[in-house]
Design goal:
The complex is a heterodimer of chains A (about 110) and B (about 110). Chain A is an all-beta fold. Chain A contains no helices and 11 strands. In chain A, a hairpin with a 2-residue loop joins strand 5 and strand 6. The chains are: A mainly beta (about 110), B mainly beta (about 110).
Chain lengths: ~110, ~110
């Protein structure tokens, strides 16, 4: 039981490039989330999903896209990367909903130069 | 939306008590949470309190909730160097998503 797995752990992008941050969980959780963490700014919710085929915007969705074709996977897509997207990205999941314990991945550190 | 507010830094000596404060925004949040983040790692749930409670004690941790003022606090008794981390409070906003504060960095010196 690996929990929440994120790949890659580190990535450097050039401005304008695109990439997908992968997130997979093996706990059969319905709810999945993407957060970004900036120094001194805490975690901001980018997108979340309450189940396969359903996604919704969080606090800071601009510049990102997500999909949820399976229960296990919740990839985050960056199109036209910008320096403002330099951050640490965390994926999280919970079984039934937001009121339950969130399980976090170990994070992806992304730099856009 | 409004931010969940926390002080950014707290420094204590080993053995002292630490109190981390938080002001949240959504009075309908059914639960309020404290998460802990150690260096280079994701967040882990430390403790939580149901919104109809005033206090919850869990070993060295005491959570106090003042719903009138939307104030949440976390007290760590007998603070140890291993407690050095960033502590985040979080609320459930609009029943759909967990919103975090900016985090309080706790530094424990021996």
């Amino acid at each position: 039981n690996a929990g929440v797995t994120q790949t890659p752990k580190f990535r450097i992008l050039k401005i304008g490039q695109s990439m997908t941050l992968q997130c997979t969980q093996d706990m059969n959780h319905n709810y999945m989330y993407w957060y970004r963490q900036d120094p001194g700014m805490g975690l901001k919710l980018i997108y979340y999903s309450v189940g396969a085929g359903i996604t919704d915007k969080g606090e800071v969705p601009n510049g990102y896209n997500v999909s949820r074709s399976t229960t296990e996977d919740f990839p985050l897509r960056l199109e036209l990367a910008a320096p403002s997207q330099t951050s640490v990205y965390f994926c999280a999941s919970s079984l039934q909903g937001v009121g339950e314990k969130l399980f976090f991945g170990s994070g992806t550190q992304l730099s856009v130069l | 939306g409004e931010d969940v507010e926390q002080s950014l830094f707290l420094s204590v000596r080993e053995g002292d008590s630490s109190v981390i404060n938080c002001t949240y925004t959504d009075s309908s949040s059914t639960y309020l949470y404290w998460y802990k983040q150690e260096p280079g790692a994701g967040l882990q749930l430390l403790t939580y309190i149901f919104s109809n409670m005033d206090m919850k004690q869990d070993q060295r941790l005491t959570v106090l909730l003042n719903k009138k003022d939307k104030h949440l606090s976390l007290r760590i008794a007998d603070t140890q160097t291993g407690d050095s981390a960033i502590y985040f409070c979080a609320e459930i906003r609009e029943g759909t998503a967990l919103i975090f504060g900016k985090g309080t960095t706790l530094s424990v010196s021996s």
